[in-house]
Design goal:
The complex is a heterotrimer.
Chain A lengths: L1 H25 L23 E3 L15 H5 L5 E7 L6 E9 L8 H5 L5 E3 L14 E3 H8 L1
Chain B lengths: L2 H34 L15 H11 L10 H18 L17 H22 L3 H32 L4 H6 L19 H15 L11 H4 L9 H26 L13 H27 L7 H29 L4
Chain C lengths: L13 E5 L11 E7 L2 E8 L7 H6 L7 H4 L7 H16 L5 H29 L4 H21 L8 E2 L2 E2 L5 H26 L2 H7 L7 H6 L4 H6 L6 H4 L20 H25 L19 E9 L2 E9 L7 E5 L1 H7 L1 H4 L5 H10 L4 H5 L1
Helix pairs in contact in C: 3-4, 4-5, 4-11, 4-14, 5-6, 6-11
Chain lengths: 146, 338, 373
């Protein structure tokens, strides 16, 4: 019988303590970020989709189309083509397509690049109802940027 | 005022009140939940999201009233109304202020309880007519819950009727005139366990209106949406309005029985139109404070298990309210001058 | 649901399909319930709705190319899965891991474990009908996700560990942030305790509900908090030590009761233990390289059969590799903890009420993609 009353009293007390906690939080400032109106700065190591790094002097991509990233990609979402040109050491990249629909952002392409020609972008506002919008032409993107 | 005009005015007032009240209680609920959970809640539609309920209402109304395969069409359509209509009928006797009441019936309290029992019938028919197993489970739960909680609620009400000697709601409020210590919740001289009665009554009205933590009829993490699982568009909307109207009735009764209804906490009264406003503002203040507590409770606790809910009623609330009844009777008998 | 309720009047039970779309199953798990009123006569989990053949994928791509898959099985404690696979391949190919990399692994894995437990805590209370603790837990978890994002680059499906090391080194900002997080979290735990753990409604819903006996847990091979809640003192970190765990001092919370409350308490205590591990690891963190001196290029383990288990947030995650000496696995078997933990569900729920059975399911901490793999 005493257990009954003990439980009744401690139980009621626990309920009021719970109300006290949520009541306190009711008056505390909100912690959420109002997304479309405010934006978060991505951390330096944030992995967005990859992008080509331009050569600082010429503005052309550093990539020499060696194809290591294409080989190292687990999902096979990179397609690189290059051609030999007069007066240029190595090959010149002519086509760099990233199929972002299958990319899993593992970063193995960036790691496998020995020429420092790839990096992660900080883009994250990517949304589209069309699949084709996620097949990125990275050379085109680089040109748009510069 | 002629009687027929009074009736028409009442109908207009109550229907618009019930509709707007449901819409804006949803807004309050979402805002309250938001701030308790440290986020904002609706804010995009209109200033502070104030037009959100209208947008939601428009969306619900524009949805197709779809009859799923296998439902009982008559029961399925009638059930939401059976929740909504009794709730609106109950407004008939609620005194919003001394003179602002549709009908001062001597058995007002009894009438509200009579109508409140129809509510559960609506839920049961709706869940049966939905031909859905989840809904059926919810319906069965609902009935036993309502049966269990009506008992302590009525016993507490009998206690209150004993101390006030009337079932007329306006009379009950009038008997609490004066300073706020005359409100029934503070009248320990009438019954030593008055605050406990208040708690019991409030908990029972939570359970009767199927509100969290007793929301067995909905129980969204167990029974999808319980009795409302199959309801589309406005069928669900009417259920919803009925639910909120019931919350208002429950809280209004609590305010009238224990917190002095339209009485101000200080003995200050006005005549005429100002008096109506004065009384109404105090009544609504108490009413919405109680409703806020209901919302606050919902966003604090987990749901009770079903048999614990029944245990609470049969093992805790009923014995205590019976004890309270006997104690009050003795107190009235032994100290009749109080 | 087949729509109508008109059934044979002599039939006293009915079948209820819980899922594949149901709020309490946290994903596409289907449980076929034979019910007598609200009592469960028989429960049979039906799996396979999100099967993606991860094991087969591991057998037809190179060792390194399987890495991103690891983060996509148990998406709530992805780093443990990274760790399990990487450690298994390292054992097979005999790759040495620098000490600093091991410490970084432990720190990030334990952070991930806390974030997983916090999310479980919120989702579990949500299963029981309380919404608010979920968002408080998310608030705390956000802090961990920000920290992990700053080193790994992603927020949920990490692919951070590499054979022989880790992808990035941690910096001072991360260390300071982690210490600050632990300080903040220690202050936060009493709030959870008062709001949820001590709440009478929650106690009534969990105490003595869904008992799993020691014997039952053993028979089904349950591991992790489910086994520890049933009084089995087994934790891979202690009993088959790997990485730098032997150098760190921490306790294994074990509860004898075997009910849902015990499993709940194990996880809540583990949050504190993980914080202890992180603090010690941060103190002991050595300077040095995070990748082996000789860069790992082509991984080609010798012919053989290898096994390595780690303690993931949900139990023991084991990787069995069979190598035929080529640059990809001959056979890759992943032993996921929740698969075993779920298999006892049918036996444990016999004769239980529906809401209790759902409380039990929540206390098992299911992540469906990990069960189906």
């Amino acid at each position: 019988m005493s257990g009954y009353f003990k439980e009744l009293i401690s139980g009621t007390k626990s309920l009021f303590i719970g109300l006290g906690i949520t009541g306190k939080y009711f008056f505390e400032p909100v912690v959420t970020l109002q997304y479309p109106h405010e934006h978060l700065e991505m951390t330096p190591r944030y992995r967005g989709h990859i992008e080509l790094i331009p050569n600082e002097e010429t503005g052309e991509p550093k990539c020499i189309a060696c194809g290591m990233c294409q080989k190292g990609c687990p999902s096979g979402c990179i397609e690189v083509k290059g051609e030999k040109r007069e007066g240029v050491k190595g090959k010149v990249v002519t086509k760099y397509i990233l199929n972002f629909t299958t990319c899993s952002l593992c970063g193995q392409c960036v790691e496998s690049c020995k020429f420092g020609a790839l990096r992660f972008s900080k883009e994250y506002n990517l949304a589209s109802p069309r699949k084709e919008d996620f097949i990125f032409d990275l050379i085109e993107k680089l040109k748009e940027k510069s | 005022m002629p009687e027929w005009l009074r009736v028409i005015l009442f109908i207009i007032f109550v229907l618009s009140f019930a509709g707007l009240n449901a819409a804006y209680l949803v807004w309050c609920e979402r805002k309250g939940a938001g701030h308790i959970q440290r986020r904002i809640g609706p804010k995009e539609v209109g200033p502070f999201g104030l037009l959100q309920p209208l947008a939601d209402g428009a969306k619900l109304m524009s949805k197709q009233l779809f009859l799923p395969k296998g439902v009982d069409p008559i029961l399925f359509m009638v059930a939401p109304l059976m929740v909504m209509v009794p709730a609106i009928m109950s407004f008939c006797v609620i005194p919003f202020s001394e003179t602002f009441v549709a009908r001062e019936i001597n058995l007002g309290l009894l009438m509200i309880f009579a109508f409140a029992s129809v509510n559960v019938l609506g839920l049961l028919l709706g869940s049966w007519g939905s031909a859905n197993k989840y809904a059926l489970i919810a319906g069965a739960r609902c009935v036993s819950q309502n049966v269990a909680y009506e008992i302590p609620m009525l016993i507490t009400t009998i206690t209150m009727v004993m101390v006030t000697n009337t079932m007329n709601l306006n009379e009950i409020v009038r008997s609490q005139a004066g300073w706020f210590i005359h409100w029934h919740i503070f009248r320990l001289d009438m019954s030593l366990l008055m605050p406990v009665s208040f708690l019991i009554f409030f908990v029972c009205s939570l359970a009767e209106t199927n509100r969290a933590p007793f929301d067995m009829a909905e129980a969204e993490s167990e029974l999808i949406a319980g009795a409302y699982t199959e309801y589309p568009g406005m069928g669900f909307g009417v259920f919803f309005m009925g639910e909120y109207a019931n919350i208002v009735i429950g809280c209004a009764l609590t305010a009238i029985l224990f917190l002095g209804g339209w009485q101000a906490p200080i003995p200050l009264n006005f005549g005429g139109f100002l008096g109506v406003l004065w009384g109404m503002s105090w009544f609504f203040l108490k009413l919405y404070a109680l409703i806020f507590t209901v919302i606050w409770i919902r966003w604090t606790y987990p749901r009770t298990q079903f048999y614990e809910l029944l245990n609470l009623s049969w093992k805790v609330l009923i014995p205590i309210s019976l004890f309270n009844l006997i104690l009050t009777a003795l107190q009235i008998k032994i100290f009749p001058w109080l | 649901m087949n729509g109508t309720l008109q059934q044979d009047v002599n039939q006293e039970t009915f079948t209820l399909n819980l899922g594949p779309q149901h709020p309490a199953t946290h994903g596409v798990l289907r449980v076929k319930l034979v019910m007598d009123g609200e009592y469960i006569v028989e429960a049979e989990p039906v799996l396979g709705y999100i099967h993606r053949m991860h094991e087969k994928m591991g057998e037809n791509r190179t060792w390194a190319k399987f890495l991103p898959n690891c983060g996509r099985m148990d998406y709530l404690s992805a780093l443990s899965y990274n760790h399990g696979y990487v450690a298994a391949v390292e054992r097979a190919a005999k790759i040495e891991v620098p000490e600093r990399a091991e410490y970084i692994r432990v720190i990030t894995v334990e952070l991930n474990r806390i974030s997983s437990h916090l999310l479980w805590f919120g989702a579990f209370v949500l299963d029981l009908g309380g919404f608010t603790p979920l968002l408080y837990a998310f608030d705390d978890r956000e802090f961990i996700l920000d920290l992990l994002e700053s080193v790994t680059g992603s927020r949920l499906t990490y692919c951070y560990f590499r054979f022989g090391g880790v992808y990035n080194d941690i910096d001072d900002a991360f260390i300071a942030g982690t210490r600050e997080f632990i300080k903040k979290q220690r202050k936060r735990m009493p709030m959870y305790d008062a709001l949820v753990t001590k709440n009478i409604i929650l106690i009534k819903r969990l105490k003595e509900i869904g008992p799993i006996s020691k014997d039952m847990a053993r028979r089904y091979g349950a591991t992790g908090p489910v086994a520890r809640g049933s009084g089995i003192n087994y934790d891979v970190r202690k009993h088959e030590p790997y990485s730098v765990y032997p150098e760190l001092d921490f306790d294994i919370p074990v509860y004898e009761e075997g009910d849902s409350m015990a499993r709940y308490m194990v996880r809540m205590d583990e949050i504190e233990q993980s914080m202890r591990i992180i603090e010690q690891a941060l103190d002991k963190l050595p300077e040095g390289e995070i990748k082996p001196k000789k860069a790992v290029k082509m991984v080609k383990p010798e012919k053989g059969d290898y096994y390595h288990a780690v303690e993931a947030a949900r139990g023991s995650f084991g990787v069995r590799l069979v190598s035929d000496g080529k640059n990809q696995a001959y056979r890759l078997k992943l032993r996921s903890p929740t698969y075993s933990n779920l298999s006892l569900y049918g036996e444990a729920t016999k004769g239980m009420l529906l809401p209790d059975a759902l409380a039990l399911m929540g206390s098992l901490d299911l992540v469906i993609p990990e069960i189906d793999r």
